[in-house]
């Protein structure tokens, strides 16, 4: 059996009940087979792949908090510090009832390669909790965040591990967590990113993942002879990534006709009204059923269905495995040109293969959504130098990073004879830098 297959088998055996983690490992290791085969003897002797797939540290803790009725609840908190070869651990905190160790490990593993691809000095980590902020009062969210940070603060710091937002963790949650960290540690430092602008946050961080997704999509389309103007775009999700992807797509002259949340989806043939979406989701924290009040000619449908809408570009921006083989078939039969992942691993392995086999340009999340964490790294730089950059400066850095990232993964795919396969390109390019740093630092 090949070294890659042995390690995949071992991962499945040693991490039972963690299918998302298996999926992420399988995708990466499958993609880097050629590189591993060329160095098989050395990699085996150094147990390089075993070290790559085993997190440096996994932390799991109790998070007790009191609701508005005086009832105590206990959630589970997680932080997986996956790989620090190229910098301090960096990655978001997911607050969603579906969170478990396997989910956090898949996200942390992806983050290692994504962060490497940004070209910035950040290692990979991820954390979160099975707490659900939906429907909770601000005081309840604060109580949870303070309890969560009371434990997490022992393991993080501006030069060791710098968490940020992800599903369910936005500006409000980061604010409460930062306040508690500062109180307990007595340090005003860049320990979290995605902070508010009044206390060390960076301009463009809120927009960065969605904007970055569109910058790389634009570059991909340009390199294949297409412009963005006039293109029909289908987006899933209605959170941070989806909203700013829709905003930037609109600015580029494309028309975004859908968005979704976990209850249903909106089809707005005239183009999604981003201001209305922001009002519903960012200000009022409501469900998408409200959208029709702002746009009477739009349609609301229960359940899932955005991938059934005919489009040129599809941008999954909600959650893992939300685009399956059947969806991929529908997209292809509707003539989709490109699928770029705003979310982490939203496309199943079978759907990815189907899209690629049918000539769809497919950019995986670890490349396409790297603009968020890249801008987090720019926030860390600003915190270190105690300065704030202008919107234009951060935005132009972000655009440069995403454009270079596209060419980096495109070149890596070509170098290994897989032109146009951006999954292979992203995994190899991300892997090369991490491995180089791991080799230089010895067996640690
Ligand atoms: P938000 O919490 O702001 O929004 C998430 C959106 O996805 C909501 O509309 C939510 O609907 C929907 N969603 C979440 N879970 C499910 C589910 N199980 N089924 C259906 N819909 C779901 O999160 P973000 O926009 O920040 O994150 C979206 C994706 O992007 C995630 O995969 C995240 O890991 C990834 N990402 C985020 C980055 C960031 O900077 N924020 C950076 C890079 C990647 P509902 O409100 O009903 O739950
Ligand atoms: O998945 C991701 O890259 C994020 N949620 C952002 C992480 C970060 O540190 O900004």
Blueprint of the fold:
Layout: H1 3-14, H2 19-31, H3 33-38, H4 40-45, H5 48-53, E1 57-66, E2 72-83, E3 89-95, H6 101-117, E4 123-129, H7 138-152, E5 161-164, H8 171-185, H9 205-223, E6 232-235, H10 240-251, E7 255-256, E8 258-260, E9 264-267, H11 274-283, H12 291-294, E10 299-302, E11 313-315, H13 325-333, E12 338-340, H14 349-357, E13 361-363, H15 365-368, H16 370-385, H17 391-415, H18 422-440
Parallel strand pairs: 3-4, 3-5, 6-7, 6-11, 11-12, 12-13
Antiparallel strand pairs: 1-2, 2-4, 8-9, 9-10
The structure holds NADPH dihydro-nicotinamide-adenine-dinucleotide phosphate and (2Z)-2-iminopentanedioic acid (2IT).
Silhouette = globular
The CATH architecture designation of the domain at 208-368 is 3-Layer(aba) Sandwich
- Beta percentage is 5-15%
Q: Could you list the spans in which at least 5 consecutive residues all have pLDDT below 50? A: none
| Order of strands in the sheet with most strands | 1-2-4-3-5
The biggest beta sheet reads:
5 strands, mixed
Task: Tell me the distance between the termini.
Answer: 27 Å
Describe the structure in your own words.
The protein has 444 residues and is of the alpha/beta class. It contains 18 helices and 13 strands. Helix 6 links the parallel strand 3 (89-95) and strand 4 (123-129). It is globular and about 65 Å long. The mean pLDDT is 98. The structure holds NADPH dihydro-nicotinamide-adenine-dinucleotide phosphate and (2Z)-2-iminopentanedioic acid (2IT). (2Z)-2-iminopentanedioic acid binds next to strand 3, helix 6 and helix 16.
């Amino acid at each position: 059996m090949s070294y890659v297959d042995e390690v995949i088998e071992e991962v499945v055996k040693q991490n039972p009940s963690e299918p998302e983690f298996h999926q992420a490992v399988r995708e990466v290791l499958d993609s880097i087979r050629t590189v591993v085969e060329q160095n098989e003897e050395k990699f085996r002797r150094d147990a390089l792949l075993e070290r790559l797939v085993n997190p440096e540290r996994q932390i799991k803790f109790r998070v007790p908090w009191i609701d508005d009725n005086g009832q105590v609840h206990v959630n589970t908190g997680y932080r997986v510090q996956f790989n620090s070869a190229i910098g301090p651990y960096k990655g978001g905190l997911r607050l969603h009832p579906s969170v478990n160790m396997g989910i956090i490990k898949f996200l942390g593993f992806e983050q290692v390669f994504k962060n490497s691809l940004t070209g910035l000095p950040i290692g990979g980590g991820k954390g979160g909790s099975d707490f659900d902020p939906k429907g909770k009062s601000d005081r309840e969210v604060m109580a949870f965040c303070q309890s969560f940070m009371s434990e997490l603060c022992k393991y993080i710091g501006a030069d060791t591990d710098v968490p940020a937002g992800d599903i369910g963790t936005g500006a409000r949650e980061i604010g409460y967590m930062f306040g508690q960290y500062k109180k307990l540690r007595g340090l005003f430092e860049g320990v979290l990113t995605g902070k508010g602008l009044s206390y060390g946050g960076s301009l463009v961080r809120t927009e960065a993942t969605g904007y970055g997704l569109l910058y790389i999509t634009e570059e991909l389309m340009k390199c294949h002879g297409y412009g963005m103007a006039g293109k029909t775009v289908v987006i899933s999700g209605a959170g941070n990534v989806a909203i700013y992807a829709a905003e930037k797509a609109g600015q580029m002259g494309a028309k975004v006709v859908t968005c979704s949340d976990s209850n249903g989806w909106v089809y707005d043939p005239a183009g999604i009204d981003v201001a209305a979406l922001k009002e519903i989701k960012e200000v009022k924290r409501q469900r998408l059923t409200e959208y029709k009040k702002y746009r009477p000619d739009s349609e609301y449908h229960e359940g899932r269905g955005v991938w059934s809408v005919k489009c040129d570009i599809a941008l999954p921006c909600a959650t893992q495995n939300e685009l399956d083989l059947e969806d991929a078939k529908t997209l292809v039969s509707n003539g989709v040109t490109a699928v770029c992942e705003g979310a982490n691993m939203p496309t199943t392995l079978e759907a990815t293969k189907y899209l690629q086999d049918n000539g769809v340009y497919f950019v995986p999340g670890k490349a396409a959504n790297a603009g968020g964490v890249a801008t987090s790294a720019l926030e860390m730089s600003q915190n270190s130098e105690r300065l704030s950059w202008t919107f234009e400066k951060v935005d132009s850095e972000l655009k440069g990073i995403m454009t270079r990232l596209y060419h980096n993964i495109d070149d890596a795919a070509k170098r290994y004879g897989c032109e146009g396969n951006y999954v292979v390109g992203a995994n190899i390019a991300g892997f090369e830098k991490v491995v180089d740093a791991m080799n230089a630092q010895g067996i640690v």
